[in-house]
Amino acid sequence: AVWTRASKTGLLELLLRERWVRVAAELSGDALSLTAEPGSDAAALNGVPNGGDAGGVRRVRVVKAEAGGLGISIKGGRENRMPVLISRIFPGLAAERSGALRLGDAILAVNGVDLRDATHDQAVQALKRAGREVVLEVKFMREVSPYMKKPSLVSDLPWDGAAPQSPSLSGSDDSGSPQHHGGARDRKVIPLKMCFAARNLSMPDLENRLIELHSPDSRNTLILRCKDTATAHAWFTALHANIAALLPQVLAELNATLGG
Predict the structure, then answer these.
(1) What is the distance between the alpha carbons of residues 47 and 96, in angstroms, rounded to a whole number?
(2) Is the pTM of this model over 0.85?
C-alpha cells in the first residue's frame, strides 16, 4: 500500500487545565506542533464581556442547561479578606457558553443577593440556590489576575510515554521539554507514532467541533476544538492519515526487535 502524509496548519483551541487556549497547530508527517498564540490569555478565551467595560460592574445573565450546573469555581470570601472571585470556568457549561464571564471576575451579587461581604460558604450557597436563570453582578479585578495562573503548553500539557521523535524533526527536543523557536515561545511537539485519533470519545461534542488525540500508552489525551464541523473533519482526517502512514515503520521496528 502507498501511504501518503498530510501537512496542515491552522488556528485551533486546546483544552488545557480546564480552559481553552488558542494555539497555532502545524501537522507534519510524524508530529503535531502546538504553539500558544501571543495574547491568547485565559480571559480572552474563557469569557470576554461582549462590548462591556472590563473595568466596570457588569450584569451577566446565565441560563443553565437541563443537565449541568453553572460551570464555575470560586475562591476568596470575607474570611480570606478577598472578594469572591471566579477561579475556574469549565468548558461546555453555562458560564463559558455565555461568553461574558472571565477568570478574575469578582462576584458582587447573585440574583440581587449582595455578596460583597459574604464568606466563601455563603457565596457557594447563594450560587447553588440561584435556580436555572442566574443574574450575576461582576467586576473584573485586574490586581488579582496574576494569581490566576495562565496555562503553559510546556509545563501543563502532559504527554508521558510518547514514542521518541524522529531525528528528521529538526530543532525538536524531548516532548516534555520547552521548545525554543523564534524567541522562546510556549511550544509543544507531539510525536504521532502509535497515537490514536478519535472523536466523541472522552467528552461530549454537541457542536461536532472536537478532535481527540490519545497517547500511545492511553494515559494522556489532547482535546482540540476547531471553528466548525468541516474544519474538525479535515483535521481529524489528516491526523488519522498521518498516524496510519507511520504504521509500517512501527511494524518494521517491532519485527526488527523481535527478530533480533
Answers:
(1) 6
(2) no
At residue 5, the 3 state secondary structure works out as: coil
d(CA 136, CA 118): 15
Cβ–Cβ under 8 Å, residues 89 and 19: yes
CATH 2.40.170.20 for the 58-140 domain, yes or no: no
What pLDDT score does 88 carry?
Answer: 86
Residue 49's alpha-carbon distances to 44, 55, 84, 138, in angstroms, are 9, 10, 19, 11
Identity of residue 72: I
Which tens digits make up the pLDDT trace of 108-121? 999 999 999 999 99
Per the CB < 8 A criterion, the answer to whether 229 and 170 are in contact is: no
- For the chain, helix, strand, coil in percent to 5 are 25, 30, 45
CATH 2.30.29.30-classified regions of the chain: 1-38+186-259
Q: Which tens digits make up the pLDDT trace of 186-206?
A: 888 999 999 999 998 888 888
Task: Pull the grid cell for residue 165.
Answer: 521523535
Which CATH number is associated with domain 1-38+186-259? 2.30.29.30
Delimiting residues of CATH 2.30.42.10 domain(s) in the chain: 58-140
